[in-house]
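Annotated sample (chain length 99).
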Amino acid sequence: MLLPAKAEVARQLRRYRAWERVMLASPADRTVRATFEDSGYTLCVLMGKRCAREAAEAAERYLRSSVGAYLQEQSDLPHGGAVARRGPPRSAERFPAGR
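Output written by the structure step:
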């Protein structure tokens, strides 16, 4: 797994937190909200997470730990949701002609 440079993670996390404060101060401002969401998206891509809050938490853990410890922690975390299965439902899987 490739990991981003800690300096870049720190920079993007600072940007996300700064826009979070601005957005909370003026939630009706569409420009501020869009910029905040953009900073969250960037953090998600950088950390490989689907949710900005999860990405921010992962970035904080990454910055606090060594690379090896972070990778070990990530492999220990339970993965959310089951993998989508393609094909017919299991109950519909039958052998043709009763074989």
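Annotation: The helical segments are 6-25, 30-47, 52-64, 67-76.
Annotation: The radius of gyration is 20 Å.
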